[in-house]
Amino acid sequence: MARTLETTTAGCPARLMTRSAALEPVPTAVVAAGSPVALESARRAATLGLIEPVLVGDPAAIADSARSIGWTLHGACVVPARDDAAAARIAVALARSGDVGALMKGHIHTDTLMLAALDPKNGLRTGRRFTHAFHMTLPESGRELVITDAAINVAPSLNTRLDIIRNAVELWRLVGGSDPRVALLSCTEEVTERVPSSMDADRLTRLCQQEVPGATVFGPLALDLAVSAEAARIKNLTHPCAGAADILVVPNIETGNALFKALVHFLDAVAAGIVLGAAVPIILTSRADPPAARIAAAAIAQIVAGRRSATPGAPYPATAAKGGAAPGLHA
Predict the structure, then answer these.
(1) How far apart are alpha carbons 106 and 23 in whole angstroms?
(2) What is the pTM of this model?
(3) Which backbone phi and psi does 149 adopt, to 5 degrees?
(4) From its phi and psi, is residue 275 left (phi > 0), alpha (psi between -120 and 50) or beta?
(5) What b-and-e string marks burial along 19-52, b requiring 16 or more CB atoms within 10 Å of the CB?
(6) Could you give the C-alpha distances from 88 to 24, 106, 119, 158, in angstroms and in order?
(7) How confident is the model over 62-113, as pLDDT tens digits?
(8) Fewer CB atoms < 10 Å away: N or C end of the chain?
């Protein structure tokens, strides 16, 4: 039996859904759309008014997968692509031309999609580093956090981490947060040469005072001191970030990956993953993602794309990608 998504928004962050409700659906290229999970994700997001799907991939595979989930594809836009690499290039070209305002990963390896998006001449570069953020919602408390970078930058340099912080701060504001408190994680709150991540966090704290206005950035902080007011009280740490962080910046991809998965699997958190810093938001989903995470990621992409009440039938506003024009989408 084909795997499908649930038809409710149960578990989706209410604040995200409320904020996205005021926006128009964002035209979104679903890259390598020929799988039941990819198509059901697109269909559900479209039904909720989050996206207008443009299905890029093998038309036969798309048609077969659509039949398996009972989707007639009536009125849907299908753009042929001979393989995954071609699908990624075509989707990026559609974003460059302004025909779509977001990309959604379908049945394609992340590296293949990102290779096309990062192409120096024909990609979606804007001058800022591509970074990944998980918007996390804890269901029992409703607390929201951003964890970054847990998916793209493996061992980021200080300059890369500055872009990671900038992108995360912008995301936090877009989803309705006030000036965020940003914790730079390490295994200790002490600056010591024995722990390189503590030294980096100390340097970043000072750099961000000038480079990231409107946010309170502090580190190093161990995880408990970043999220637990009681732990901060016991250790007499009175900084505004202590115990009250909105954004957790991890020192490397291993830490971020383990942290977000622990929250998902032990606390049933909803993790909505998105790539920032590109000319358009890129929704990165996994086959293991539950429905709520897929819908939340689409809602965030819609918010980031920021399309409001565009004239019906008009092309999506041109993106800020560097380089020459790309061929447009024709009905």
Answers:
(1) 23
(2) 0.89
(3) -105, 125
(4) beta
(5) bbeebbbbbbbbbbbbbbbbbbbbbbbbebebbb
(6) 25, 10, 11, 30
(7) 999 999 999 999 878 999 999 999 999 999 999 999 999 999 999 999 999 9
(8) C
**3-class SS letters over the chain:** CCCCCCCCCCCCCHHHHHHHCCCCCEEEEEECCCCHHHHHHHHHHHHCCCEEEEEEECHHHHHHHHHHCCCCCCCCEEEECCCHHHHHHHHHHHHHHCCCCEEEECCCCHHHHHHHHCCCCCCCCCCCCCEEEEEEECCCCCCEEEEECCCCCCCCCHHHHHHHHHHHHHHHHHCCCCCCEEEEECCCCCCCCCCHHHHHHHHHHHHHHHHCCCCEEEEEECHHHHHCHHHHHHCCCCCCCCCCCCEEECCCHHHHHHHHHHHHHHHCCEEEEEEECCCCCEECCCCCCCHHHHHHHHHHHHHHHCCCCCCCCCCCCCCCCCCCCCCCCCC
Which residue segments constitute the domains of the chain, with CATH numbers given?
A: 11-125+278-312 (3.40.50.10950), 130-275 (3.40.718.10)
141-184 tens-digit pLDDT: 778 999 999 999 999 999 999 999 999 999 999 988 889 999 99
CB 211 within 8 A of CB 169: no
Q: Assign residue 113 a region: left if phi > 0, alpha if psi is -120 to 50, beta otherwise?
A: alpha
